[in-house]
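Second attempt. The first submission of Short-chain dehydrogenase (YqjQ) had a stray character pasted in from the spreadsheet, which I only caught after the job came back as garbage. Lesson logged: always re-copy from the clean sequence file. Corrected sequence (278 aa) follows.
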Amino acid sequence: MRFNFFKRSKKVAVITGATGGLGKDLVKRLLNEQYRVIMVARNMKQLEQISLQFGKEVTGCLCDISHNNEIAYLCHDIRSRFGQINVLIHSAGTINPGSLDTQTDQMITEQIQVNLTGAILITKGLLPLMKRNSSIIFINSLGGLLPLKHSALYSASKFGLRGFALALSLELRPKRIYVSSIFPGAIETQMLHREMKCGGSILNFCSPPLSTEIVCDTVIKAIRQRKLEYFLPKWSGLQIKPLMMLPGLIRFIMPILEKKGRKGQKTWKNQQISSISK
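This time the job returned cleanly.
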């Protein structure tokens, strides 16, 4: 299949992880905002389905972000076919829960590559297409603020992504290219279900999992407002950021958070059972 190659538009958005639960909804939302969308994902079949659904308004770019050579080709391809992009949204992400001694070298490399290195390389590769008043949006995680036991690699990659975004914002602001990071808690997607089947963090349920709609709303808000960081739910940043100024307190507070998480997970599971039975 040949994907649609649309003409240059006043507003063009690139979304990585475009076929995931959040990514697909971001594509729809950006289309509603009158963007033309370049979808980046590694699933050819799903790219084809979405491309057929939305026609000339989208184009699909096949890329496995875990491979640097594919990122290099992706960036070259986009640069050669598009004169300018206005928004770059990093939605791709992966997690393999488990203690460090259970992680293979491949698991370690993949999480750091997809969550951090890949985002850096794509940003660098597409930056020449970004002009004044462009936006770069990183879908980070509260795991980029609060360390997650048995998800050390995920936390490391997300902590690193926050540092990269903060430093990059200082570098690009004189050019009026704006960098924003969004820090959601758990999002109600298949990724969350897969994570929990593999022993994901109980802290995912300290608050109810977010709908993709809420995250999409925040992405649009970030494009318009251009603030540096957004936290979902809003109170989470107010609680977690002061805590990280005194990281020694985490071991005392963690039992309280885990108790809250276990209670929230029980409610979540009951809701899943109730929705299936209807």
